[in-house]
Amino acid sequence: MYKKLIYFAGAVLLLAACSGPQSAQDRLTVNDKKIDAVIAQMTLEEKVNMLHSKTNMSSAGVERLGIADMHYADGPFGIREEGVPNGFQSAGWTLDSATYFPAGSALAATWSEELAYKYGTGMGKEARLRGKDVILGPAVNIQRLPVGGRTYEYLSEDPVLSAALALGYTKGVQDQGTAVCIKHFAVNNQETNRGSVDAQVDERTLREIYLKPFQRAIIEGGAMSVMPAYNKVNGDYCSENEHLLNEILRGEWGFKGFTVSDWGGTHSTMGAMLHGLNVQMTGDNYLGQPVIDSIATGALTEDLVDEKVRQILRVRYAIEAVPDNVANQRMTSQPESQDIARQVAEKSVVLLKNEGMLPLDPAVKKIAVIGQNAVLKTQSGGMGAGVKALYEVTPLEGIRKRAGSGVEVTYAPGYKNFPGRRWGPAPAVPDPLEAAAIDEPADPELLAQAVALAKEADVVIFFGGTNKSIETEGSDRQNIDLPTGQNEVVKALFEANPRLVTVLISGGPTDLRRLEPVSPAIVQGWWNGTEGGTALSEVLFGDIAPSGKLPFTFPAKLEDSPAYAMGNFPDKNAGGDLFSLMYRQDVLKMTPAERQAFMDSLPKPVSKYTEGALVGYRWFDTKDVKPMYAFGHGLSYVEFEYGALKATAGKTSVKVSFNLSNAGKMDADEVVQLYVRRVNAKVEWPSKELKAFQRVSLKAGETKTVTLEIPMDELRYWNVEKNAWDLEHGELELLVGAASDDIRQKAGVTI
Ligand code: BGC
Q: Which of 383, 577, 583 is the pocket-test mutation for ligand 1 (most atoms within 8 Å of CB)?
């Protein structure tokens, strides 16, 4: 009996260990024996053939042995349109229209791991329909710069929020039998010189801020593949970074899958082979014949090639290849995913300010919608993150549909649209609604037309913000100013009719100093996917209460934000971007030796991360700088009451419980946020840090008891002396609230 008990306890322990942090990766090794037997049958050429691209979006299998090619698809907000085999140009298919899911910052504004999971399931299913094995997403880098070209692709400025969403997305995709390729590993926070910049970041900041989202998705979510970023981190390219790929990813986190360089982001044969890259995308100039040659000279071993092939095959065996006669038989976009896109969009809309304007008064009979962002589609553009959507409900369409026949909705463009970087050829006849410069002042005619409509309306809804050419992969914004005279337009509208609601359609923050005083209500509406216009109108008309919360700080002015305040960005000696140079015709014509010499002669851009962990609100709080809208901010149509906290600190976690009541007359969600402040700490900490959060749905008048839990591991810091995670014991102040600047209840515990 006693023995049995021991066995039982042993089994429980074993189970606990299996369901522990490493198990999600260890599941990838179940076929290792079979894989080794297959590798034994492969020629060196066949193996090396798996280490580089076959087409722009695939890498080879071994047909002779029944190993299918690996098919990749961008991510992260929709399965990208099918391209021609050797490029990104459209293949001209008809069944490849996908669901356009809300962009990264919109998903993050839901603060919901569950919705991120659903989102992942939609993406994973649509990938299968298209015969894709690997989604190039989620994109989970920390939003360090308000101007970042990919801020909208990324999730949040906070690692805990980013990590929870990255985890949900990863599990959702992979539960559908599709692999994620989480990107861009790591510290990929700017587009300026993205192909050459060296992000110089201290180890503690690296661990606590920049690696966290990857860490959770890999250890807990079992992310099967990882895309090393274009940039360097502390001196080495990410695609050949021993510390990132071999020591941390594989060594510490137990990653068992494979890495795929970002497109054009492989830089050498030896570096990539020795320091953790599996697949060169795209091209074979580094991980093709040179690998075979290096084995012949003894510089590399075939065992290393076997190891890399094993890591690829683990994923190949975990993901069932979709047969050619099964893939692409139906439209990629399916109603189930469209519904998920709507649910996410509904919960992402953030009400920044409301002086009694919203929800719209049911007595309203005439609405003037002003601004091109009400009609511009946001699905395409932005390079890798563009989607050929089956359909997209624009804000104006959403409003018209919801308003119905009894309400007149008028529209005027209000301002010119700045097309920014053009993705296609310039139109033969110039578009009169296009501005020639981003800071072009308001057009007097468009302004007069908009003001005339505003005067006649019961309410004016102004749509401002940016577009996907202004915020895009490949470049950062010069500033966060509202483009093309929008500030003048909104001021004139307010003067014409103060019953004004402003909706911002953008992926990142904008400078609202001039807009805010003339906007009685402000909504952040995002690039919100296929059903974005539907979700927005539901919020504006009060069918649902807004419940999104900002995943990043809206600084009052750009210079207040940490990297700017510290003089770390922009880098005045930036020089040319290696990445774009690599594709320049004259550079392409050079011999390898000439190209190397040319590259070596270029300036070496550096980005210093001396603001350390003080990214986003951590900076604003610690330095006592008031932002325009704080991280976590988002209003509702109801008031929520936060009861007193019951806080306990156990061995493995800290818990806080309290009653949350919806004191309003409609059902609504609140996102409760738990921040931790260290009291009398010896270690240096930001003023406070988000450690847990929860989206809570409450019926009108309902009260629920909410429990938030912080695993003890989440309270650790990276001790640089010990080169390990460490816990600082002592007093913690637990701050629970509706936003980082709206703390409602406090309690203390000692750990
Ligand atoms: C982007 C990646 C993308 C890849 C393939 C690169 O330019 O950085 O995010 O997945 O292209 O489209």
A: 383
